[in-house]
Specification:
This protein is mostly helical. It folds into two domains: 193 residues, MFS general substrate transporter like domains (Growth Hormone, Chain: A), CATH 1.20.1250; 186 residues, MFS general substrate transporter like domains (Growth Hormone, Chain: A, Up-down Bundle). Helices cover 74% and strands 1% of the residues. It is built from 18 helices and two strands. A two-stranded antiparallel ribbon has the order 1-2. Helix 14 packs antiparallel against helix 18. The relative contact order is 0.16.
């Protein structure tokens, strides 16, 4: 495996989401989290993994009971498009605020605040406003969740890198696996909770419980951290003027379009094809578990070579093709199509993030490229869920969405080819 290492910069074989530090431009440099011995470090590690375990349930839980919500709450068609799009859009909108808030309050306290907002948003979502129905609370709660997740997405990797410099591989694997697992849990358990309780509100409220538990666990650790104000240090490469950075970012945009569409629309697509809610949730959950396998192996394969063009194209076409076959292919092979999509999507997400490391020469440039990719990638990537929703509203089915994902997969292969060339930002 190739390894390009700079002083203070982790090897490129390390998972890129963990190697990139959103606080790298701060002065003075943030101190490690104040802990009480090795037990404190283990406690912090558990808290960070548990935070990761709550970062995707908001997406997959909603889609798991979408037909029941639509029927019971009498939601207008436009609201479904908004509810599946807004949280992803906010991932990009709030991402740039995370380092600013961390400089003012400290990363740990911002993470604590984000978990408080996430818990509140999950509690708010199912409420019924007298005379107005469920829609206002659904909109407000979903928006709060998206904003909170955006802050966690940006700050968690830096905290892991700062406090676990000699355990990046272990913590990287646990953290990224927890995020994938959160989506799988939301997809797999929401419908059974609905079946057991008889109402979709209980199924959505259920996911506030683990978020609240993590909030309470992280509270004593976060509040004891000293408040130190930091300043941003400007300088270095301007990634916004780099053609390589834009090619990598477009690759990220297109993978995000497909990734979040899986969370938002895969279960409704399966149910539209006649699969019952419990089985649909299980299929999506298994597909996301296969994403975890892809995300584990794809970066190691990609970093063996200086040129990632072939692997970028293959996983992009696997993802788009798997999604299209889920819509058009025979239902007898639905596990095959969703499995192909899962392996492809997990690999695609991982290699897109790997481009941060292999297309940059130093940690500062990698951090700025990561910020650009998250802001543009999630912001523009939310158009995937938006277009699927609009096409479904316009046509009454998902056939047009299948064609859309063939196009998106092909475009991802094109930009993956461009981003995979051996060049640097």
């Amino acid at each position: 495996m190739t390894s390009s290492k700079t002083p203070g910069y982790p090897e490129k074989s390390v998972l890129p989401a963990i190697a990139v530090d959103a606080e790298i431009d701060e002065e003075p440099a943030p101190d490690p989290t104040q802990l009480r011995g090795k037990r404190g470090l283990v406690y912090l590690g558990i808290c960070l993994v548990l935070i990761g375990l709550n970062l995707r349930t908001v997406f997959s839980s909603f889609s798991a009971v979408l037909p029941e919500i639509t029927s019971d709450a009498a939601l207008p068609g436009w609201s479904l498009v908004v509810l599946t799009t807004v949280p992803v859009t906010l991932l990009g909108v709030f991402a740039p605020l995370a380092p600013i808030l961390a400089r003012r309050f400290g990363a740990e306290r911002v993470l604590l605040g984000a978990m408080a907002v996430l818990t509140a948003g999950l509690l708010l979502r199912p409420f019924e406003v007298p005379g107005m129905g469920h829609l206002p609370a659904l909109l407000a709660g979903t928006a709060a969740c998206g904003a909170a997740i955006a802050l966690c997405n940006v700050l968690l990797p830096g905290v892991v890198k700062r406090d676990f410099p000699h355990r990046l591989g272990l913590m990287g694997g646990l953290y990224t696996t927890a995020i994938c697992a959160s989506a799988a849990l939301g997809a797999g358990f929401t419908y059974p909770v609905f079946t057991a309780t008889g109402h979709w509100t209980s199924a959505l409220w259920f996911w506030a419980v683990p978020a609240g538990v993590v909030l309470l666990l992280f509270l004593p650790l976060a509040i004891r951290q000293p408040a130190v104000k930091h300043q941003a240090v400007h300088g270095g490469v301007n990634v916004w003027r780099s053609s390589v950075a834009w090619q990598v970012t477009m690759f990220m945009v297109l993978q995000a379009m497909m990734s979040f569409s899986v969370f938002a629309w895969m279960a409704p697509i399966l149910r539209d094809r006649g699969i019952d809610g419990g089985t649909a949730g299980l299929i999506v959950s298994v597909s996301i578990v296969l994403q975890m396998l892809g995300s584990l192996f794809a970066p190691a394969l990609a970093t063996r070579f200086k040129d990632q063009r072939i692997i970028n194209m293959v996983v992009a076409l696997m993802t788009g093709g798997g999604f299209a076959l889920t819509i058009f292919g025979p239902t007898e092979l639905i596990w095959v199509w969703t499995g192909l999509n899962g392996l492809g999507q997990g690999s695609l997400t991982a290699v897109a993030l790997t481009m941060i490391m292999v297309r940059t020469r130093d940690a500062h440039t990698a951090a700025h490229l990561s910020g650009m990719m998250q802001g543009v990638g999630y912001g523009v990537g939310s158009l995937g869920t938006l277009m699927v929703g609009q096409l479904h509203q316009a046509t009454g089915g998902f056939a047009a969405a299948g064609i859309l994902f063939l196009v998106v997969g092909s475009l991802a292969a094109f930009f993956g080819y461009r981003a995979g060339r051996d060049r640097f930002v």
